[in-house]
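In response to a reviewer's request, we include the raw inputs and outputs for one of the modeled complexes. The two entities were modeled together in a single run.
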Amino acid sequence: MNSSVIIFPGSNCDRDMDVALKKFGFKNEMVWHDDEQLPKSDLIVLPGGFSYGDYLRCGSIAGKSKIIKSVVDFAAKGGLVLGICNGFQILTETGLLPGVLQQNKNIEFICKNVFVKVNNKNNKYFNSIDKDVLELHIAHNEGNYFCTNDELKMLEDNNLIAVSYCNEKGEVNEKSNPNGALQNIAGIFNKEKNILGMMPHPERMIDKYLSGEDGSIFFKNLLNNLK
Amino acid sequence: MTTVNEQVAIDHGLKKDEFKKICDLMKRTPNLTELGIFSAMWNEHCSYKSSRKHLKNLHTQGKRVIQGPGENAGVIDVDDEDAIVFKIESHNHPSFIEPYQGAATGVGGIMRDVFTMGARPIANLNSIHFGSTQHKKTKNLLRGVVKGIGGYGNCIGVPTIGGQTCFDESYNGNILVNAMTLGLVNKKKIFYSKAAGIGKPVIYVGSKTGRDGIHGASMASAVFDDKIEEKKPTVQVGDPFTEKLLLEACLELMADDSIISIQDMGAAGLTSSSIEMASKGKLGIELDLSKVPCREEKMTPYEIMLSESQERMLIVLENGKEENAKKIFDKWDLDFAVIGKTTTSKKIELYFDSKKVADIPIDFLAEDAPEYDRKWKKTKIPQKIKFKKENFKSLKINNCLIKLLSNPNICEKKWIWNQYDHTVMGDTIQKPGGDAGVVRIHGTEKAVAASVDSSATYCFAHPLTGGKQVVCESWRNLISVGAEPIAITNCLNFGNPEKEKNMGEFVECVQGISEACKYLNFPVVSGNVSFYNETKDKGIKPTPSIGGVGLLKNYKNMLTMDLKNEGNVILVIGKTEGHLDQSVFARSILNEKKGPPPEINLFNEKNNGSTVMKLMREKLILSCRDVSLGGILVAIAKMCIKGKKGVKLNKLKSLINKFEFFFSEDQGRYIIEVSKKNLKKVENILKENSVHFDNLGEVQKDNYINIDSEKISVDELSKHNKNWLMEYMEQ
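The model returned the following structure tokens for the whole complex.
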């Protein structure tokens, strides 16, 4: 399977994503933001980081970069687009996903392990994952998801809230919400569920010497579902 | 333009006789731009005029040392093609005036020092010291500094893997912010600052030059007074995004062989970078300042030369490589300008609007900079305190332990490091909160461990002992995670060197550091000195911060401190003599602040450490922690908390009382966890090597520390240890 990771000026999880994708068998290519054409890909990843320094608003300038037009076209044709952290912020800024990511409620950067509940397995990303709760890692200053009531209703009605912050037992409550996100939302799909944006970083959890291994489950599964 | 006279020179921080020396050397009165350049090069921060004499005595040699002090950073060999570039640097004065920007640009500056040498930064650490927790400024300063460190490091995408935070009233008027960076480089692709060749183009890259930070280095070379608010404009403003671009662009350019020499524009900006390059290469340099990219209008040559705008580099390129280099910097949207060339004149010659505006022989600025042999006073070793039975009468182990674990200098600092991205780059295998942080060398089996330590309380009581102690502490911390200690970088934070007492503290701390480094074969490869940490006549305690780096040949052998399994035996390696003077216990519970620091026996230190390493190589140790602040019981409690386990401690067979046994801060000790089946073997190895040890007890499943009839809940201890800082910051 072929994947592409887009590098924006200020991306800083691009290498980590490249390492993770290759580890689990993707043929990955790095794509510069100023290119117009995407290489032939089964999966496009917008990695974490601080594209354009997060100036103006997180993800907003990256959302206007040259390559994004191709990403939008790719997604429109049903191609898989995954945005992690800053990548999620870029997806909301381009309008590919609804809502915004505001500053964390405690106005501090948060770097720690969290648990997320997988709400919808009927898609290429989570299909046939055994676990209902994954331990992943967050590292962000603006992960506090927010959207209008109508958008929230649309997300809920269509079961598009991909993952929600929860505790070890899978209970979604205020205590397990690290950043103030609306309804503990950690990641969402578009209607067709080919686009996934989420704040947690699966690429930082890919071997037992790191913060954990649940990221491996995510990537292995994704590759299998694409085959 | 201002006419230069003695008063103008004094306003620039120069002394009368220094100004006279300048006029004598130049055989004329310098113009304002020249005077500015002299003041920048001759200040304490850049010239090391008070410290140089003593720094020469530091131990800097070792078989793994590729580059010692004198470059942008030190370099050590970590086998194969790999080398680690590292350094620690202070950003104290600016951080007190403007904590966010001061701390942020401190991190930015040290990362530039490292990638200037061709290394990709792989880990950041920091040592930060604040005033009393009761002082009205402390909370805001702490919040600002932590945000600044995080704001910069997180954006660049380099994990902050460790650090140290101290509170002490001596920092009420002068906080310390010391930032350390480690980078990874191919041994054959290290870049240095020495220029070579005549007529080579001098290139300016990075951000545009503004009016920020003018005289920053001079500000850091003077004490604070009431007018400190007025110094805000001397604090630089950081832009981590540009630094990230600069990092990527420089590493891209470094992939081929177009760079002859490269230097970041740190303290004293374009002045010190250009002069250092020329001085090291014994060359001259000619710059046309009209070509320097400026972000403000009508900047004068004086301002351009003294600006400390961040994220800028000066590069000497091979002829004909300009076009290719420009392409790379254009790709990363960074300014690129050819601003001059190297010459044979051995002078710095500056032009602006086609007029010559400065002309100074390089030697006057570098070699001829003043060097002082300042007077200093020895500190006598204080008399030992005789603690009496009544001192301990009303005390309970349980309450003391809780008090110690929630002491600001011992409590868990999660509130701080949760705000630092410590996992980006995907190689952090030991997070902050342990004895040392550990990152893998990407794509290999190897890993590097790093820690930062200081012990100002000991250094204040007796600088010579304190200097030795802090090196030993660093050595121990590295060993405790399973690493072989290799080398250190030091950041020497002191008060006003013009005072004999402060100068004495400096001289004796350096002497202590040197002795310990030599004995442990643990050389100093880089560092910096920060004097004048003084406000209105009140100086800080002498605070050398030591950043230690060690190597793990196989990261899978890394050790952590969390207790592993019930039934295992806990040993303390090293002799417990019961030295309470200057311990956290004596100071915070007995309220006794006098007495000598614990003695350092370098023979025992080395022997104990080497033997622990031997046990590790034989895979006989399951968890490990060095004994430091708070003594044995605090170390064990932290191991219990991390491992979510309890312990049953044996009845003491010691001659000293239980408070002395549990809370004394004797040096050279480690707590190790060993399985019962290996106990005999471990004991034999310890005996063969003449290492003193005591069997403390066993790991238990129940979550309690059991001492005689006392039962202390680990959950309770954990709560106190984890909550203190969070609650303090929320109040």
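As requested, we also summarize the result in words. The longest helix of chain A spans residues 214-226. The mean pLDDT of chain A is 96.
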